[in-house]
Amino acid sequence: MSKKFSKEPIRGMDDYYPSDLREINWIIENIRDITEVPKLNTKNLCSC
């Protein structure tokens, strides 16, 4: 009852080299930094 494992990659999975992954992570990090919305400071909102 031994099962043979397939050496084919899992469908939907991508393999990245470490240098490529560093570049992808750098791009994603910069996009997150650019699109980050600053928090609204409610203490200074109304000076009534």
Verbal overview:
With 48 residues, this protein is mainly α. It is built from one helix and no strands. The mean pLDDT is 80.
Write a concise keyword list for the protein shown above.
1 helix; mainly alpha; single chain; 48 residues
Q: Roughly how many Å apart are the termini? A: 79 Å
What percent strand?
under 5%
Quick check: average pLDDT? Answer: 80
Count of helical stretches = 1
Query: What structural class is derived from the secondary structure elements?
Result: mainly alpha
Low-confidence parts? none
In helices, the fraction of residues equals 25-40%
Assembly classification: single chain
What integer value in Å does the Rg equal? 23 Å
Per the principal axes of the C-alpha atoms, what is the gross shape? elongated
Number of extended strands: 0
Biggest sheet descriptor: none
Run of helices and strands: H
